[in-house]
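User: I'm new to structure prediction. If I give you an amino acid sequence, what do you actually give back? Let's try with this one:
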Amino acid sequence: MELDLAHQSQRYFGLDERELLRPLRRLIAECASLIDVGANDGYYTMAFLRSKDKCVVACEPGPAMERLLANARANGYETGERFRAERRLVGLDKEGISIAELVKDLPHPVLLKVDIDGGEFELLQSAERCDRLHELRWLIETHSPELEKQCVAWLQSHGYRTEIIYNARWRVLLPEERPIEHNRWLLAEHEQL
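Assistant: Good question. You get back a string of structure tokens that encode the predicted 3D arrangement of the chain. For your 193 residues, that looks like this:
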């Protein structure tokens, strides 16, 4: 992948969101389909494509999708039966696609990695009509304390166990170059599992 070392040096050194490594390894191994919502340049999509999972979906409505597809091609991956690119917004937008619709025909269980800067709760609400909601695993980056509370409440009311993945202590010395105050991850797995 092309990296801008002025802004992506943590990625270059393998420190970018390192807190997610252990849960992601486990979830990737347990799931049949992997969805990267807010895929941006495809950092997580590339990791998903290297797995043995049956289906990988990269969701990115913006111009970053072209960079993602170029990164995929540079790594030997083309869209097709196993790898899909979704350019519509994911959530409740009338012209977008809901989670229920997105996961409908995918092999289950499904891991959804979500990083969409503000639409997290609306995205969760779009899963309401999902037939197999209990087979979805979530890794959601939250971008405000209020959104985090809303997401936790929604997930728990739908039978999920939730866990906040706190930023590593060393980030005090080597912070990410993000202009927002609240930025951490939420892991959710259904109680039936």
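You can read the tokens as a compact description of the fold. Here is one thing that stands out. Helices lie at 9-12, 21-30, 43-49, 64-74, 99-103, 120-125, 145-157.
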